Amino acid sequence: AESVFHSRRRPNLMRLIYGDRKYTPEQIINGDLDEPTSKDQNGEDSDEGFGTGPGTAGEESDEDEDFLTLKTEQTDTTLEQMIDSCKSTLVYTDLDEWDEQETKDSLRSRFITGSLDLPGGEAGG
Amino acid sequence: MNTKVLKYEGHNYFRQRLVLATLSGKVLKIEKIRSDDTNPGLRDFEASFLRLLEKVTNGATIEINYTGTSIVYKPGVITGGKVHHDCGKSRAIGYFLEPLVALAPFSKVPMNITLSGITNDNVDISVDTIRTVLLPQLKKFGIEEGLELDIPNRGAPPNGGGKVTFRCPIVRTLKPIQFTDEGRIKRIRGVAYCTRVAPQFSNRMVDAARGVLDYVNDINIAAVHYQGDKSGLSPGFAISLLAKTTTSAFYSAEVAGGPGQSPEDVGLQAAKMLLSEIRKGGCVDSISQTLILLMMVLGPNDVSKVRVGELTPFTIQYLRDLQDFFGSQFKITQEVDNDRTHLGAAPNTLVMTCVGIGYVNTNKKTT
């Protein structure tokens, strides 16, 4: 399943970032991409692509999805985005997993002390 | 591009756009800054950042409309020199220092900037992380001699009172980088500090963090207790951790403690965040992604290549802004290594490739 996920995602990352910019950065990271079938560019919002489309505060209706722009991002996103800090992305919520020895062991091969023969375990999140 | 004015909306990504405009010399217009907010317009820290930008440049004009909801910024030249700036209490020093790090190498005379305010909090990256993580990244691009950040005084929120001095050499051009081998982690370093609380707080944070990071023996986390006038105006404690690999890639994490938190919790949380950061892999951690990518774009007309872990939303917007200001696109290749053929590497990383625009610091005289 993981490979399927990545094969779907791999060719798209550049286009998602540099394409018509209809997705906010958060959506790209979270994989929260509606209508994955219409990856092709829809044509609108090409005036420099700065996300100045007509989407407004009344988001969440389906038509507005296409126009998801900076404007909606401003009202739509979490507090972290509002504070303009690259550190905001470091706030993890699932830190408890590191209490499990298994999770900790999965990182062992990343250290020079770890054995090179170990197959590392599953580190994917 | 129909005009030379770049227009944006909203207050997000305020600093990076001003920095990119300054570097590229393009006129920047930002509209609708919190125009729907009950308290519209620029916040005090944003205005403060504009003032700082005026101090380190010459010839810049900033027009702000009456309500503060739109600004037009015409950049000048980066002059640098000796500057002092009070960062206030709404944002930490990192908010101001982080963009300065990107500007400083391209200044006319070397920057020597003293910033006062809050040194560590949980919103902006701390001065420790800037010193131990961001500045070493610059060295990879050939910015080395005299690059330093002194932290004589600490200042915890809410009242701050800390002071740092940032000195950066100037360069004419950058070197391209090829950094795709992330290596394996060989040592862990860190700083734990406390001010106006029991001196044992530092040691307790260190002990808790060490307990989690039992992968390598080479762990050295300095426990510092600031006293007297070096300790700022508020009680506080924080820890900043750094893992360094055999190829000098860094991973970092930091947590500042607040009221009611025990130092053990803070140490544990920082250590676990470091592990999460390590798991993401790549040669560059999340905090330094934007700086590295910017320096790659500004590099000579040569290919730069770097391996990163997962991109952050902040970085994605940065990539878009880089394209707007400099017209450069990154080639992003996703490498999935499920079989772990390259032992020790993270399973999922991205290789970012770009050709530098050959940025030349015309302010620096050639000798």
Taken in chain order, the helices and strands of chain B follow as EHEHEEEEEHEHEEEEHEEEHHEHEE
CATH architecture of the domain at 185-280 in chain B: 2-Layer Sandwich
Oligomer: heterodimer
What's the total helix number of chain B?
8
Distance between the termini of chain B: 37 Å
Question: CATH superfamily of the domain at 185-280 in chain B, please?
Answer: RNA 3'-terminal phosphate cyclase, insert domain
How far apart are the termini of chain A? 13 Å
Report the count of strand segments of chain A: 0
Please give the radius of gyration of chain B in angstroms. Answer: 20 Å
Give the overall pLDDT of chain B as a whole number: 91
Description of the structure:
The complex is a heterodimer of chains A (125) and B (367). Chain A is built from seven helices and no strands. Chain A has helices at 2-9, 13-18, 25-30, 62-65, 70-76, 79-82, 101-106. Mean pLDDT of chain A is 59; it is low at 36-81 and 118-125. Among the domains of chain B are: 1-77, Translation Initiation Factor IF3 (2-Layer Sandwich), CATH 3.30.110; 185-280, 2-Layer Sandwich (Dihydrodipicolinate Reductase, domain 2); 285-355, no CATH class. Helices cover 28% and strands 30% of the residues of chain B. In chain B, helix 3 links the parallel strand 7 and strand 8 (109-117). The radius of gyration of chain B is 20 Å and the shape is globular. The model of chain B has no long low-confidence stretch (mean pLDDT 91). At the A-B interface, helix 1, helix 2, helix 3 and helix 5 of A face strand 1, helix 3, helix 6, helix 8 and strand 17 of B.
